[in-house]
């Protein structure tokens, strides 16, 4: 292996784009793939074998909703036989009796369950699915009953930001080990719905205080991870831990990508597993190498003391807001375009489309 490129540690496998929910903040691309574009069981197995050979230690099985794949047990079994840690990222709806147990039997290590609201009306509104909340709670209880570790993922935006204290209570009452208070990232469907989802600054500040207080009060009881809202930040996050640094993802059709929104960068082409080997993609794909390390950086990142901490932030956010994937992420206070974030917040907060009546729900084949 090229000594400048270390093996990847984790992989996000988007097994399918099919999902019973239609969440307005979904990070999937706007052009969702139908079932006939998904890799077969054998192709996913071959991909997972090669991922293990390449050094991948953890696989996050995601979607869409991964449990719609009837072969999920076979895929989990393939990974656990290779000693790879498996995390099921699920919406928790439509999982038949006995399925979680079957997944546990083949070695599933962990379940991450998304909950869209701390109460039923919010969950049902955001995912556009009646009865969703109660079904999710049932799934959460089953996960804990059978002894699998549970993380609750709460994607936060203007329609549920005041529910953060209730999310904390809910996670505690369900016996979760971890709660992610994850402010939504404005890519994919969330970017399309940005005006309807953007919180205001006062709510964000209140939320930070609530989370910090709970983190210290609940030490040793409930781990609370906080994903800060980029638009309100001073410095950006190291998106994906740095472009093609130790993680990548695979779309349902086998296309390998450095991150969720990479396909929004028009200058890049992404290879598919089957046409290229995973090892070749990881080492030699021009798209994976485009923003690796810090050689590609322009000023102010190039001479910044934080360049190996946040890796210049998010390339896809730079593309979406600055129109240049190689620009400094405008979330950074040092970006010449940083003030654009404040403008976008106030535009969103005063837009006529802030209400949920204007949601554009995620749907396969939706004409935008
Ligand atoms: Fe990070 Fe670049 Fe901002 Fe420095 S200038 S903090 S490297 S985004
Ligand atoms: Fe693509 Fe952040 S989502 S680099």
Automatic annotation (TrEMBL):
SUPFAM superfamilies: Radical SAM enzymes. Catalyzes the cross-linking of a glutamate residue and a tyrosine residue in the PqqA protein as part of the biosynthesis of pyrroloquinoline quinone (PQQ). Keywords: 4Fe-4S, Iron, Iron-sulfur, Metal-binding, Oxidoreductase, PQQ biosynthesis, S-adenosyl-L-methionine. Residues 5-222 form the Radical SAM core domain. Interacts with PqqD. The interaction is necessary for activity of PqqE. Pathway: Cofactor biosynthesis; pyrroloquinoline quinone biosynthesis. It holds the Pfam family Radical_SAM. Its EC number is 1.21.98.4. GO terms for biological process: molybdopterin cofactor biosynthetic process; pyrroloquinoline quinone biosynthetic process. CDD domains: Radical_SAM (cd01335). It comes from the Bacteria. It catalyses: [PQQ precursor protein] + S-adenosyl-L-methionine = E-Y cross-linked-[PQQ precursor protein] + 5'-deoxyadenosine + L-methionine + H(+). Binds 1 [4Fe-4S] cluster. The cluster is coordinated with 3 cysteines and an exchangeable S-adenosyl-L-methionine. The keyword S-adenosyl-L-methionine applies. [4Fe-4S] cluster binds at residues 19, 23, 26. Gene3D superfamilies: Aldolase class I. PROSITE patterns: MOAA_NIFB_PQQE, RADICAL_SAM. One of its GO terms (molecular function) is 4 iron, 4 sulfur cluster binding. It is an enzyme of class 1 (oxidoreductase). This is PqqA peptide cyclase. The gene is pqqE. Its cofactor is [4Fe-4S] cluster. Belongs to the radical SAM superfamily. PqqE family.
